[in-house]
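A quick aside before the break. I want you to see a complete sequence-to-structure record at least once, exactly as it would be stored in a machine-readable document. Don't worry about memorizing anything.
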Amino acid sequence: MKREDAILVERCLEGDEKAFEELLTKYRSPVFSICLRMVKNHSDAEDLAQEVFIRTFNVLDRYNPLYPFSSWLYRITSNLCIDFIRRRKKNIYSLDEPVSGSDGEMSRQLPADTVDPDRELENREMMEVLNQAIADLPEHYRIIVILRHQEDLSYGEISENLGIPLGTVKARIHRARNMIKQVFMEKGFIGEIGTVEGDPL
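That is the input. The structure line, written in tokens, reads:
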């Protein structure tokens, strides 16, 4: 995979537009998904994803083929998302801003065999609380949770993607878990939080 991407990048640098289209097709969905989880607005996420690829194309000659292209691309994505959130906070920020509720990915975590309406409602509420808790995490924690539980990256891959020490990744995951547990305690849900994006926190 790493070699395949490196070849595509090399072709891009030689002026092969088709090669960049292949990279775009391959990574458009995960990049947009990360942006949407970070900024919680479909239109902003589309704009950011487009900016990610424009930025990537403009600095493509800085890519080091010794490392995975995906790591380099996700670092650009996370940096642009964090910059966007910081700019938005300087203008106006409301805790009442609409946040998507139980979407398809989140609803997959609901037990498939439940038939108790009360239990089903509680599960739905828990997923909404979980989604909101992740959305309310400080951006440096949120991006790590997204990369870990949505993109299924290992701690080592996250460390490489974001250019931060492995110990920092582990510490932030631990801190994010505690923050989410605190939210669940405040909402009156007792016991362990199940999973985030199919993987235990």
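Two observations worth writing down. The domain at 104-200 is CATH 1.10.10.10 (Arc Repressor Mutant, subunit A). Residues 92-115, 192-201 have pLDDT under 50 and may be disordered. We'll return to this after the break.
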